[in-house]
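Whether sequence alone determines local backbone shape is best considered at the level of individual chains. Part of our work consisted of pairing the sequence of a single chain with a tokenised description of its backbone. This step matters because it turns folding into a mapping between discrete strings. For completeness, the protein is quoted in full, as a sequence line and a line of structure tokens:

_____
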Amino acid sequence: MLILRSRRSGLAIGLAALALALIAAPVVAQDGGPPDYRSYFGADSRLVVWVVAQLHLLFAAFVLGVPIFALITEFIGYRSGEPRYDRLAHDFTKLLAASFSTTAAFGGLLAFSLFALYPKVMDHLSDVFTPTYALYGLLFFAEAFTMYFYLYSWNRLAGPRKVWHLLAGLALNVFGIAIMLIANSWVTYMMSPPLAEVNAETGAVTGQGLNPLTGEWNGTLWQAVNNPLWGPLNIHRFLGNIAFGGFIVGAYAAVRFLYAKSRETRAYYDWMGYIGNFIGIAALIPMPFAGYYLGREVYSYSAVMGNNMMGGTFSWTFIIQAILIGALFIGANFYLWSGMERIPGAERYKKYIKWLDVILILCFAIWLTPHNLPLSPEEQAAMGGQFHPTLKFLGLMAAKNAVVNFIIVATFLSFLLYRRANKGERVPVSRQGVGSKIIVLVGFVIVALALGWYAANLFTLDPAALDLTPDKAPYLILPAALLVAQIAAGLIAVILTFRDRGDVGQMVYLGVTVLGAVFILGPYGFVVMTQANPLLRNIAVVQWLMTISSLVLVTAIDIVLVRGAREVGSIRWGQMKAPSQYTLILLVVGVVCVEMVRGHDLLSQFVWVEALMIVLAHYFTSRRLVYLPPDAVRQLTEQGVLVPEPHPLYLPRHSIRLVIVAAFVLVGAWLYKEGRLINAQGQLVDKHAVAILVMVFAYLAGVLLRGLGGLVMRGRQNTPTRIWGDLKALVALGAMFFAAGVTLAGKPELLPDVARHAALAAVLFYFGSR
């Protein structure tokens, strides 16, 4: 196996070298000395570097993230003595071998591309960071050697020698993190090089750093490494690597789970998927705060760069990012809710899921709302300006900061419900040992020190430090007072916990957190933006501290509450149902409806029309109502033929069907009211919208007719299904033969749009009614 993997690594490196040779051959150069920029085949150099760098970073994130939780999992197995943790860590590590060589190949391709396409930029970086190049290379070889040693010595360094294997895993993580820190210094230096002060009149340089006039560097290596964005990017990438690696492991386990044949294998990969997703969620929760910290430092270094990033050239990427972040949180919550189906006792908490779902969707909607809408002049005139009179406020950072904290608290509550699902009778905290009380007190002390430290900073902050006048100082009193109130709420929660009312204490602390961070500081942020805008950063920090403190203290209390609790039943690993993608169905329906309202030509975008018909066909056939007597349902369920399944998204029965049908009915009614379907002369106006509505309603009419027919004919001995089916088939075939014959004969004028739509409707009605 080692030889095989070595050959694969050599093949990957060889292919990368061949690609470099082919790409480097036609590099376009300029005459007369080294050029500033070059290109491959005339392609955009920025695009080339972005594609290669992104591929390298995706594999690098996995290579750096997986060893972290592989080591933690192995250590848990070592301490607990459970072999499944050791096997899980080993499986994690096996995934590294295949991706490590690919990461190295893309890294080499990126390095060659940078030096070939941006020679002067790389020449400058080489002058500044020469020692780090050598250190990076040594660390890379050390990481490669340690990774293979860690993987292939797993069975040899077992038992009493397990400590040495754990030390090898620790060294692997140290080398990987050091490599990330060095690479981050190069990237952040290009974005935020420390600048030297230059006299604009004389050109004299005072201090050390980059001369903004000549581009010359006279600073130290550490000054270049420790630039303004280095620390924030290190935190953001470290969390991102862990989250990315966790979700990749979860996806890998999901695929293996779906293809598993035995119950034991399904149980193992179900558990592996849970662990991977738990790691991903744990790293995902603080990610928005790390991103905000990075963005804040970008604005602090250069407001122009910040505006280009969030409101200019790259603003569209932030819209996409907002969608993906919201989808990640909703998906993570949905996985936890689905996982509760395999836990005995979880039915006690299902009633709370719908409220968490409502919170997540509302917060997601606010999170996605833009401040500046892309409008035509006519739309601006109709709305009264570029900004919506109400929704414009939801696009500001004050609203975003409030809802992202609410999303994190809701996700944390989902995890608490999952964690408590199979816990029954508990051991009162008053009857537990001193260790339990120490856990709660340590959590409270950490929270109180952090909140108290920042509250003291706010009470003593001089507004002049933020370029504000002294009369702006009162705006700091409310957030500082809320931090003090948060400490008091923490103390109350601890006292209630010691008096065996820990549930109430958790509710008190989470309630104070949501009240302060979301419903008080959220609206207060708008006041601060208009009166003392620089203080909004401090408000965001207060919100972050309150939310993180709730996660720390509530978790500490929860550990004590469920300590020694009786289990209602063991988790039924391997009985996790295949995740239902009803959210994606609603997403496709929503996109089609919105695009129809906007008047876009969806027929030319076949992917949306095909996706729409596929999800409709799948949903209304795979979930078709088939009447079975209760005794037959019970017998088939006991035999494993039928799998009990809750209603989609825990909504009432047939809710998804109703939403899908109602969406198209409302869109059709709105288009008819606006005169976009048929004009006074009976002519089609918006042919694209009519075509889609015909397809949808014809198919749904067939589904409805079949359902009604089944209800009417239930219990009857003689049903005209054969005759009715033949009649439908003849009509559909006749319509299609006529349409196809006219088209093939080259006489499209004989087939008006109405007839073409009618033929399509007949075919879809036929399939919908089968």
Q: What stands out?
A: The chain is about 70% helix and 0% strand. The longest helix spans residues 45-80. The radius of gyration is 31 Å. The longest strand covers residues 197-198.
